[in-house]
């Protein structure tokens, strides 16, 4: 991926997974009712802190807190910049 951004310290850039467009039973969810996804793929990482190296790596699929991160739009795509502590799990 050709993103020209390097997060600092313990920050991680995540590309959110697309929001669900249908329910399990097949009903279509309108745009205004879609929930913000809580899963995404790590696309860039910082160097970590001196006493706390990062545990995630580029390409990891992660679960993150519902309101974690700052929304960014880079090269026409939506991303979230967050601290590694906002990531709940690697899946």
Helix content: under 10%
What CATH architecture do you see? Roll
> What is Rg?
14 Å
Secondary-structure element sequence? EEEEEE
End-to-end distance = 21 Å
Average pLDDT reading: 86
List strands and helices in order, with pairings.
Layout: E1 11-16, E2 39-45, E3 61-64, E4 70-74, E5 77-83, E6 87-90
Antiparallel strand pairs: 1-2, 1-5, 2-3, 3-6, 4-5
Describe the structure.
It is built from no helices and 6 strands. The chain is an all-beta fold. The protein has one domain (11-19, 34-90): 10 Kd Chaperonin, Protein Cpn10, Chain O, CATH 2.30.33.40. It has a 6-stranded antiparallel beta sheet, with no helix packed on it. Strand 4 and strand 5 (77-83) form a beta hairpin. Keywords: Chaperone, Cytoplasm.
In short:
This protein is mainly β and 91 residues long.
Which short descriptors sum up this protein?
single chain, 91 residues, mainly beta, 10 Kd Chaperonin, Protein Cpn10, Chain O, 6 strands, 36% strand
